[in-house]
Q: What sequence folds into this?
């Protein structure tokens, strides 16, 4: 009898699971098919239209953008992600620092003056009326890096308190391509300007200038000029950021060479010395003076968050994120003044809508909840994601993973997909499995020297320990191959990246973006149906944080 019941049970189970399985498959197909190039194009076009004014935080463009996202999420039947609101306030301080006159550099019986914007940039994060450098001694500190794990200290044996440090961009590993120095050509966090200014402040410097060189910076002077000559947005801090340097800026290579010449030094020679572990900082014996007048405005920008509630473990979340903001309008420009940010990142923002629709079209909800987060002020230094990650609405230890989209594929179908920060987390395995289903292969990001892992919003989540995935678009076009793709991407970086010409083009081939969105959907879907938590791999910088956080489960 017992055996018979068992058999019957087994048969019933089989029938039941086959039915379930078929049903799930059908729903999954339906969900995947609802991700469409037409609506991705339409929403990208709307978000990057002139009407949206370049989507600057705390602007009219913001109002239009966040309400557009909210309305789209509402139409799809998603629920608000922050209590009864679709928005999370992100308090920000907007500082507009304008130099009084020029940057004056005195020494060796001459004074040279340099002009703001074309020759140098300068901002302050100190939220006070004015800051200045007054005859501040200039010191060349190589890469400006203190990295104990690499046995490296560019500030060793020198006190730069009140002085103005001048430093190279990127890190010695990139400069030498020596795989044993730092991480070879892959940029470390020490290569990023964010780190260099932070370190200069820790050392007590009054001023900190980074020397711009296109190759190690990974972008031209135009990007520096656009990014650093308008208002800067920061999160408010209790000490008014007095712990930061008074002045943070960039010098063109041309200006740098002139300054070193004035100091009687040879820039190329000192640069060559800076890659040696025994490099010692060199005083240039020059005095820098500069005054910045600040106008300070406190403002509030907003992240947008919507949720597809899970059926079984609704308190556990898979995040999809994309920054909705871009640079707004620059009235000082001739001709086109609107930074439409079509690729960067109207595409990713519109991608959130596609994913939301797909999860709603599953028929039955996923087991874990799905959060769609459109963050603000990425272009100002990942502020919206930083604010969310440090003021999370859902506990970080209940946040299974974060999947970031920043600039989707506009070039068509690819044989591959790249992971930025490949090898760091177990999420790679999910991508590999799903990519194989699409007949695609997974590759590491081919340009780790650009430090992309530290340059978009997933990094804010990673710093809090949350496993974060950031895929690139793939580079091996199914018809045209790799060289063709690289040429187009380089052209975009040179001509359109962070410029008013990053505009929607109806000729874009979004078929590859649809592949990527379907892939990311499946990754999130798999995670949503599991009960395990993926982690960072052994030896990565975020694993200890995650392990400690998961103890709170
Ligand atoms: Zn972006």
A:
């Amino acid at each position: 009898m017992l055996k018979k019941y068992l058999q019957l049970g087994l048969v019933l189970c089989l029938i039941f699971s086959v039915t379930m399985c078929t049903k799930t498959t059908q729903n999954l197909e339906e969900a995947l098919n609802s991700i469409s190039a037409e609506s991705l194009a339409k929403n990208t076009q709307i978000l990057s239209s002139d009407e949206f004014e370049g989507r600057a935080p705390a602007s009219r463009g913001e109002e239009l953008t966040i309400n557009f996202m909210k309305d789209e999420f509402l139409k799809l039947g998603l629920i608000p992600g922050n209590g009864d609101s679709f928005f999370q306030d992100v308090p920000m301080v907007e500082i507009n620092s304008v130099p009084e006159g020029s940057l004056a550099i005195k020494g060796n019986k001459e004074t040279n003056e340099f002009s703001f914007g074309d020759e140098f940039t300068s901002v302050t994060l100190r939220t006070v009326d004015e800051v200045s450098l007054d005859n501040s001694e200039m010191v060349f500190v190589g890469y400006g890096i203190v990295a104990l794990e690499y046995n490296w200290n560019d500030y060793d044996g020198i006190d730069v308190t009140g002085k103005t440090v001048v430093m190279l961009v990127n890190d010695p590993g990139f400069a030498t391509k020596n795989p044993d120095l730092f991480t070879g050509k892959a940029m470390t966090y020490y290569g990023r300007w964010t780190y260099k200014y932070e370190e200069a402040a820790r050392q007590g410097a009054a001023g900190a200038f980074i020397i711009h060189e296109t190759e190690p910076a990974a972008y031209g002077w135009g990007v520096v000029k656009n990014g650093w000559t308008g208002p800067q947005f920061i999160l408010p801090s209790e000490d008014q950021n007095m712990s930061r340097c008074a002045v943070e800026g960039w010098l063109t290579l041309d200006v740098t060479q002139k300054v070193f010449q004035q100091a009687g030094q040879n820039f190329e020679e000192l640069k060559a010395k800076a890659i040696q572990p025994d490099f010692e900082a060199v005083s240039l014996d020059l005095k820098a003076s500069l005054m910045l007048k600040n106008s300070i405005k406190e403002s509030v920008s907003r992240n947008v968050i919507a949720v597809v509630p899970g059926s079984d473990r609704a308190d556990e979340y898979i995040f999809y994120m994309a920054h909705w903001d871009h640079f707004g309008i620059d009235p000082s420009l001739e001709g086109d003044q609107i930074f439409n940010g079509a690729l960067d990142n109207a595409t990713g923002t519109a991608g959130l809508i596609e994913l939301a629709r797909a999860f709603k079209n599953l028929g039955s909800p996923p087991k874990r909840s799905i959060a769609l987060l459109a963050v603000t002020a990425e272009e100002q230094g990942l502020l919206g994601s930083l604010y969310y990650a440090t003021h999370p609405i859902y506990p970080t230890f209940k946040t299974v993973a974060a999947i970031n989209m920043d600039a989707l594929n506009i070039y068509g179908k690819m044989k591959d997909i790249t992971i930025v920060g490949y090898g760091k987390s177990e999420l790679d395995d999910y991508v590999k499995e799903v990519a194989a289903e699409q007949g695609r292969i997974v590759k590491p990001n081919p340009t780790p020297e650009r430090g992309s892992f530290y340059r978009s919003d997933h990094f804010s989540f990673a710093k809090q320990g949350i496993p974060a995935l950031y895929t690139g678009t793939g580079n091996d076009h199914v018809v045209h191959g790799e060289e063709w793709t690289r040429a187009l991407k380089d052209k975009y970086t040179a001509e359109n990246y962070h410029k008013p010409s990053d505009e929607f083009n109806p000729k874009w081939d979004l078929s590859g973006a649809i592949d990527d969105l379907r892939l990311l959907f499946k990754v999130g879907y798999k995670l949503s149906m599991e009960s395990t938590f993926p982690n960072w791999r052994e030896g990565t910088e975020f694993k200890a944080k995650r392990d400690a956080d998961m103890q709170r489960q």
Remarks:
- Residues 95-296 form a domain with the Glucose Oxidase; domain 1 fold (CATH 3.50.30.30).
- Residues 323, 344-345, 378, 406-407 surround zinc ion (CB under 6 Å).
